[in-house]
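Sequence only, no structure available. Ideas?
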Amino acid sequence: MGQRRGEFVSVQRVNPCRLLVDAGNSRFKWALDYGDRLGEMEACPSRAGREVLRRTWRSLPVPQSICVSNVAGAEVARVISQTCLSLWGMNPVFASPLRTFSGFTVIYQEPKKLGVDRWLAALAAWTRYAGPTLVVDCGTAVTVDAVDACGQHLGGVIAPGPDLQRISLLSRTDIQADAVPGAISLLGVDTSSCIEAGVVQGIAGLVERMHRKLALILETQVFIVLTGGAGEVIGRALDVDYEFEPRLVLLGLSIAGNDS
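Reply:
I predicted one. Tokens follow.
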């Protein structure tokens, strides 16, 4: 028994990890951070309660620490904290935006009013791409944040995401249509595909306009990085180059660590 326990401790020392959690409005996403690499991202709906997380997370290796990005409210934070305490006897660290961090600077007068997911995504994008970047998160909301080459967050825009646009249109009109999320076309050929074309092309147009305007202001090329559940769909509708990184917020957590 003593020998097996000694072997277990040795493995933990050789391969330590942190659990990184991105609690969004629609989904929980998490991955293990091994220091030199980030593990595969896993996800479940945000409405999942404590027992669902317990069943899902109990198979994970015991983390050295837990870092969380939470934009889903106090109740979600409570569920995450209780789950971590019951499984591993430790409290998670909840990230919070800072005015300056490792050369990255927030323009907001009150940095904490910048969503922590936006802060982490922009931090990760600037750190990773080292140049002017437009960071686009296509989730429940669509957020677009601009960062210059010096790491200055220049501000952003927030718009309804694809699901909110569909729900709003159908709930406020007598239009009868079946949802066809993810379908991409320039022009729809029936009511459902017309709605989807409007949603996807509208968001793509927003991204392309912001990209064009930012490039003119900064007088340089600007890189686009997309993230979020609808990021791939929107990306395929763009007429400009981009990269899709679904783990962008988790990468930001890995950079910020416990210092945030």
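Residues 2-94 form a domain with the Nucleotidyltransferase; domain 5 fold (CATH 3.30.420.40).
Hope that gets you unstuck.
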